[in-house]
Design brief:
alpha+beta, Glucose Permease (Domain IIA), Membrane-bound Lytic Murein Transglycosylase D, Chain A, 8-stranded antiparallel β-sheet, 3-stranded antiparallel β-sheet, 19 strands, 23% strand
Length: 347
Amino acid sequence: MIFRTINNFNDTTNNDTTKKGCISPLNRLWPFLLVIFGLFSSAFAETELKKEVLHRQESPKAKNSLDQNSNNLKEQLTEGLSPSSKSKLSISEETEEESAEEENEDSEETAEEVSDSEPEGSLEDEVAVLPDSAVLPDTMLFYMNQASLPCEGNRVTSPYGIRRYRMHKGIDIKVQKGDTIRAAFTGQVSRVSYERRGYGHYVFIEHPELGISKTVYAHLSKKLVKVGQVVQAGEPIGLGGNSGRSTGSHLHFEIRVQNMALNPAIFFNFENHAATQDTLTLSMVEIKTELDAIEKELAKHRYHKIRPGDNLGKIARKYGTSINKICQLNGIKRTTVLRIGRVLRCS
């Protein structure tokens, strides 16, 4: 009896030992399950973070909140700084902003012929209305021996004149990024700004003493002057580039007289890199007549670039036509989805 009890005890002990030394399949799976759970948790957290970032970017309220927090932090950081240090900080921020703008621009040429586009807003409106002939002088004199070509380039890649659905108010001259751009006439800088979908980095200079409303230098890679600065003819005012809406490095150059955009080729022979005449005499009445003819030609074939909020009814009212006429001219239907940026013929 005692012998049988001892044997039973030994059998029980052996069975327990065997169970403890053996790892079940479920125990082997636990480490892998923990790893998989960790990976899924990490992926889920990353997805939620991206959603939060996108939400903050798309939400104007969140953006305003971030901007306000940024401004408050900036005030705290600059509270103890001297005025000169604050000025240096402001200049640094402007430089960083311009650098960020340039990073978004394509500096590589994608076509042999380069082109530009004036902004769609207020800049274009400045020359939308031609002056009355009654207020124009009969003739104007320009002393070109005191002028300077705006750049070293002599190849005009896009001339002044009517394009497919708009007026090209200046000329495009081939330059390389970083080439020096100079003031064509002595004057005062009236505007230095940036237009992402148009002129890019640009400079306006007024020349009232010479009878020239302003000259325009657009698609620069860098601006070297400030508003209010007086510059002499030939003085550097910027560097050539490909900023704004452009397909290659070039200078868009305009000359406006009596707020009318004239052909710069009247003033300069770019191929020969010289002024057309030492003393240039222009009949302003004849020029006004030519520009009126251009306006009438453009009015025959009016086009509209679709913008957010546009619909066929709104476009038809703007151009004094009908929805059916617009559909007929463009081969579309009343139910056609209007894609932003598409150009519709309206007359």
